[in-house]
Amino acid sequence: MIQLENVTKTYPKASRPSLDDVSVGIEKGEFVFFIGPSGSGKSTIIKLLLHEVTPTRGKVVVNTKDVTSMRSWKIPHFRRSIGCVFQDFRLLPNRTAYENVAFALEVIGKTKAVARRVVPEVLELVGLGGKEHRYPHELSGGEQQRVAVARAFVNRPLILLADEPTGNLDPDTSIEIMRLLDRINRTGTTVVMVTHDSNIVNQMRRRVIEIESGSIVRDQARGVYG
Amino acid sequence: MRLKYVLNEVLVGLWRNVTMTIAMIITMSVSLTMLGASVLLYMQVDQMKNYYYGEIEVSIFLRTDVTDAQRQAIDQAISSSSLVASKSYETRAQALARFQELWKDQPDFVKSIGPNSLPESFRVKLKDPEQYKTFADQIQSMQGIQDIIDQRALLDKVFKIFNAIQVMALVVAGVMALAALLLVGNTIQVAAYSKRREVAVMKLVGASNWFIQAPFVLEAVVAGLIGAILGFVALFAGKLVLLDHRLQALTTILTPIHNSNVWLMLPLLAGVGAVVSAVTAWVTLRFYLKV
Q1: What is the DSSP-derived secondary structure letter of residue B255?
Q2: Which of A54, A88, A141, A159 is the most buried (most CB within 10 A)?
Q3: What is the pLDDT of residues B214-249, one digit of tens each?
Q4: Do B281 and B167 lie in a common domain?
Q5: In CATH, what number is assigned to the domain containing residue B70?
Q6: Are residues B164 and B215 in the same domain?
Q7: In 10 A of CB B6, how many CB atoms?
Q8: What pLDDT does residue A165 have?
Q9: How many whole angstroms separate alpha carbon B138 and alpha carbon A92?
Q10: What does the pLDDT read at residue B1?
Q11: CA-based angle B280:B268:B234, to the nearest 5?
């Protein structure tokens, strides 16, 4: 499902590469943690998978498509097969939970009728039934992140990328979000999560890939934060 | 639905930053008015050239002491020249009659001219008025010629003035266009900034580039079109007020500017306004949104 082959990424003006000759494969349906200290290069992986940045060397294959050589006009369509959740939620403050999720559908050309059918369903799935018409500022952090997860998942993507999704949440709320991601993973969606929340990694007991100074130092099937 | 969404975004965008929108429209319309004026002037000069060059003559004035033999020789030379389309001859008496007719409002002036003061002349129409120099060289050296006058030289002075006005209008159009471009770029940046969250989400969930850019580009195009319409109105008003009323005296020299030509400026200005705005907005977005 995801294949990095000898990927090196050096940002312009950076003295050393953020990722240095990294090779890793992720199968369909897996749940993978990328862990490591700040600046280790784990967020660069998310950016590479989204084609927000291109690798300096090496090949990135997502969902059998070679992202490295993808024409720029194909990127938007490619991104529709990937859901994304961030630490800062990235919701639109002037839209309700329902509208935030529906917006993601409408801007890729889905009709309002589709949104009316699908959005309540996915909001129910993430546990926000009854709060569809609240604005982000009327929701708790955990609830806002649920809206973000609903938005990322509403298209039924093959892959869900999560960049420190619990970074702004308290431990209990974090666990709830993880349960949600786990549930999504069980529907067959590949989940790739970047985090440095040791608590969560230790509880989940999933595959852990540890990155340090741009290189993989550990790849463990049922790992702990260590 | 998507069309409705895009149109709604355009209106909201224009209204959100209404002072900037107005500035953009005004500069755009002034620039386009100037552009239209200069194109009209260009067409006008062209039309006048066609008209007057068909009318103008080369006058060959003969010396007062010209002999019959000399006159004969000159006549012969003109007739045998391959450059000449037609010729006529004007005696002193005819010249005087024409003079008296022309200046009949000023009898004192007419009285001051004696019957022999005006020279006799040949009036020659050339096949190609541009060939004046060659023709003049052919006969210049002949005996009995006082002077050769090319009316075209006089007209060219008039055309030079028109050309100068036209260039000035173009320069103003260019400068205003530059200001308009910067304003469009700035307006689009502000619009993109105020919608940066939406744009970020749209990019994230995979909205197509055109869908992200369309509202911004259309915003600029709508402003450009309004500017073009205002510019056209100004042009038409200018034509009515200046040429048809204030400067009506000039219109005896000027061939009339047809309204159809002025109407022709509407699609021209609208096209230029819309395309220029769209391209500017699009280029700005490429740098600013990096989509």
Answers
A1: P
A2: A159
A3: 889 999 999 999 999 999 999 999 888 877 777 666
A4: yes
A5: 3.30.70.3040
A6: yes
A7: 15
A8: 95
A9: 85
A10: 54
A11: 95
* CATH code, A46: 3.40.50.300
Largest distance between two CA atoms of chain A: 52
- The interface predicted TM-score (ipTM) is 0.88
A18 within domain boundaries:
yes
Which of B201, B208, B209 faces A104 most closely, judged by CB atoms?
Answer: B201
Place of tokens 């006969």: B139
B101 Cβ contact list (under 8 Å, min separation 6): none
More confident: A24 or B253: A24
Q: In what order do the strands lie in the sheet with A19-26?
A: A19-26, A2-9, A57-62, A65-66
To which H or E segment does residue A4 belong? Answer: strand A2-9
Q: Which residues of B touch A75 (CB under 8 A)?
A: 206
The pLDDT score that the predictor gives to residue A59 is 94
Beta bridge mates, B195: none
Mean pLDDT computed over every residue of chain A = 93
- Is the Cβ of B210 closer than 8 Å to some Cβ of chain A? no
pLDDT digits (tens, 9 = 90+) for A29-64: 999 999 988 888 888 999 999 998 899 999 999 988
Q: What is the mean pLDDT of residues A86-96?
A: 94
Q: Is residue A25 part of a domain?
A: yes
pLDDT at position B5 over 70: yes
Residues of A whose CB is below 8 A from B203: 76, 79
Rg (CA), chain B: 30
For chain B, how many structural domains are there in total? 2
- Among A75, A107, A111, the residue with its CB nearest the CB of B205 is A107
Q: What is the sign of the dihedral through the CA atoms of B129, B132, B134 and B138? A: positive
Q: How far away is chain B from the Cα of A149, in angstroms, using its nearest Cα?
A: 12
**Same domain flag for B110 and B82:** yes
Report how far apart, in Å, the C-alpha atoms of B7 and of each of A99, A181, B19, B33, B241 are. 19, 37, 20, 27, 37
Q: Tally the C-alpha atoms within 13 A of residue A211's C-alpha that lie toward its C-beta.
A: 27
Cα A208 from Cα A189, distance rounded (Å)? 17
Q: What is the mean pLDDT of residues A107-122?
A: 92
- pLDDT at res. A135: 96
* DSSP labels, B38-99: HHHHHHHHHHHHHHHHHH--EEEEEPTT--HHHHHHHHHHHHH-TTEEEEEEE-HHHHHHHH
Name the pTM for this structure: 0.74
Which residues, listed in sequence order, are joined to residue A190 by a DSSP beta bridge? Answer: A159
Any residues with CB less than 8 A from the CB of A37 and at least 6 apart, and which? Answer: A196, A212
Q: What is the pLDDT of residues A154-180, one digit of tens each?
A: 999 999 999 999 999 999 999 999 999
Per-residue pLDDT at B251 exceeds 70: no
Residue A155: list chain B partners with CB under 8 A.
205
Q: Do A77 and B208 touch (CB under 8 A)?
A: yes
* Token pair in block for residue A148: 């973000």
- Cα B166 from Cα B183, distance rounded (Å): 25
Of B91, B119, B143, the one marking the end of a domain is B143
